[in-house]
Amino acid sequence: AAGVIQSPRHLIKEKRETATLKCYPIPRHDTVYWYQQGPGQDPQFLISFYEKMQSDKGSIPDRFSAQQFSDYHSELNMSSLELGDSALYFCASSLGGTQYFGPGTRLLVL
Amino acid sequence: DAKTTQPPSMDCAEGRAANLPCNHSTISGNEYVYWYRQIHSQGPQYIIHGLKNNETNEMASLIITEDRKSSTLILPHATLRDTAVYYCIVRVANYGGSQGNLIFGKGTKLSVKP
To answer: What is the pLDDT of residues A84-96, one digit of tens each?
Structure first.
């Protein structure tokens, strides 16, 4: 079965640079969620979109923004990167309840 | 804050059943119990969920107490590949509109040993 696709899988950036993470949900899923997992921590919810509109917002820094496009894929844009942004970023998608996660993007900020 | 309490770690012998408990004493009537697991930095994997009846699928069984204040995830024949952090999460299952993010607690680190 098709799963959630995330790209890139690994990303290395310098401080103050920008990064864009992409998420392609499972076909026909209409909701996308973004989570951040710092080293040794549990996943924390950032933001979600339902039918291309922002539906919930968690602990997402103002430096981050996201959107969901007409084909339901989503992008997380991160600007003015800080060392503390180094983390795993997971995308999940759902259709009516259960969320299914992608493999994640590992971001390292140097 | 997470609405669930789980033991931080458990061990299980390979081939034996692994029983992972979860307390959710403040669960609301419209909240489901979801279980996910995360194998070493991989994306969290959905296991099973339930409202009040016991549930079983190809991966596990979920036993929910009658008062719904606690539940147990059962892996009937644990293998080394089941070593992971297991998260018990309660959430409202909305259909349409805002569908509710997951709030991850600390989870239980299950170690399956040969």
So the answer is: 999 999 999 998 7
Alpha-carbon torsion A66, A69, A74, A80, what sign?
A: negative
Please choose, from the candidates A54, A55, A5, the residue with its C-alpha nearest in 3D space to the C-alpha of residue A26: A5
Contacts A29 to B, Cβ<8 Å = none
Which residue in B41, B84, B88 sits closest to A89, CA to CA?
Answer: B41
Locate the chain B residue with the closest alpha carbon to A6. B43
A98 to B104: CB separation less than 8 angstroms, yes or no = no
Measured between its terminal Cα atoms, the distance across chain B in Å is: 35
pLDDT of residue B55: 96
Q: Is the pLDDT of residue A27 over 90?
A: yes
Burial bucket for residue A14 (CB in 10 Å: 0-12, 13-18, 19+): exposed
Tens digits of pLDDT across chain B (114 residues): 568 999 999 999 999 999 999 999 999 888 899 999 999 989 999 999 999 989 999 999 999 999 999 999 999 999 999 999 999 999 876 655 455 788 899 999 999 999
DSSP assignment string, A18-61 = -EEEEEEPPTT--EEEEEEE-TTS--EEEEEEETTEEEEE-S--
At residue A85, the 3 state secondary structure works out as helix
What residues of B are in contact with residue A98 (Cβ under 8 Å)? Answer: 34, 46, 49
Give the 3-state secondary structure of residue A84: helix
